[in-house]
Design goal:
91 residues; mainly alpha
Amino acid sequence: MAITSAIVVYAVVWFLVLFCVLPQKLNTQGEIGIVFKGTSSSAPANLNIRKKFIITSIISAVIWALICLAIIYGLISASTMDLFKFFGPRN
């Protein structure tokens, strides 16, 4: 696997994990009881974005390493993702 492929895979995994981590342990302004003027009651009261970025990076690194190992050892390849080969017409 080329270095650019590894970087792209990490970026995709990182953003997917980020969207899973963002809503975790989220306290809204409505839950706390302090709704600022001009905001929705469902707006986050304290997002802790730095902590969520760190958690996202750690989880992404583990998932990325597993994906890279699967690609390097041949468990995942372009031929294994050829769905036409599996679902296409039979000869």
